[in-house]
């Protein structure tokens, strides 16, 4: 597996990547810290290079739709999307961090 950047995001919203807290079909989830606030979040990292061709387009469209749907949902049992980034071919989705999982 490829290693990901230790830091990601733009200058105002720089995050430091921490340990892996989960692995799923779409990628890995890491604990991360927003450096400007010292707040902890979960960063879901989806490798968009792993799919090619038509499937790749479908996978990216599905991922973007998932992000938009997650942004609209407001429920105490659903992790809120804080922000998202494209970083070196990976889609990074920053969400609230649940200490004991989702």
Automatic annotation (TrEMBL):
One record GO biological process: mitotic DNA damage checkpoint signaling
Domain Protein kinase: 15-102
Pfam families hit by this protein: Pkinase
Coiled-coil region: none
GO molecular function: ATP binding; protein serine/threonine kinase activity
Gene Ontology CC annotation, any one: cytoplasm
PANTHER family, per the entry: OVARIAN-SPECIFIC SERINE/THREONINE-PROTEIN KINASE LOK-RELATED (PTHR44167), SERINE_THREONINE-PROTEIN KINASE CHK2 (PTHR44167:SF24)
Protein name: Protein kinase domain-containing protein
């Amino acid at each position: 597996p490829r290693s990901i950047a230790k830091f990601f995001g733009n200058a105002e919203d720089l995050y430091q990547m921490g340990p892996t807290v989960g692995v799923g079909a779409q990628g890995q989830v890491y604990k991360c810290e927003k450096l400007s606030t010292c707040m902890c979040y979960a960063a879901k990292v989806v490798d968009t290079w792993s799919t090619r061709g038509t499937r790749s387009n479908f996978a990216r469209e599905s991922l973007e739709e998932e992000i938009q749907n997650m942004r609209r949902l407001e429920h105490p049992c659903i992790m809120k999307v804080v922000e998202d980034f494209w970083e070196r071919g990976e889609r990074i989705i920053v969400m609230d961090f649940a200490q004991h999982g989702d």
